[in-house]
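Below sits the subject:
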Amino acid sequence: MSEYTKFHVGANVFVLRKNSLLLGKRKNIYGDGSWGLPGGHLEYKEEMKEATRRELKEETGLDATDFQFVNLVNDTRQDEHYLQVGFLAKDVVDDKEPKLMEPDRCEEWKWFDLDNLPENIFVGHIKQIQAFKENRYFIDGTE
């Protein structure tokens, strides 16, 4: 094993409409049946905002004019280690409804009131959504 152990970086998108957050029900992937943010892995040499833009488009068909950094979670769960980076989609183009672009990985997209989110949030996004609701920019490890 090398001196450095590898870990993953997630680029996740908060898409808001009034006081509602867009979440997708995961299917046939880790966290199957739980609700998660649009997003995915940062690719090698990819810029964060471009990863966020790409993931939003690939998963929902939505475009945004810009993305604003909202938080970073150093997620050191027992079975995984991720840096989850959250961005707020600014000015979603044409205010379209999300489309099911990856039906093999997502069952549906649904809007949830921020004060009434589903109980079964994807484990990798629980702390990130919590930080977003509390206007916190950083959560470290088991905090």
In short: The chain has one domain: 8-92+100-140. The chain has a mean pLDDT of 93. The helical segments are 48-60, 126-133.
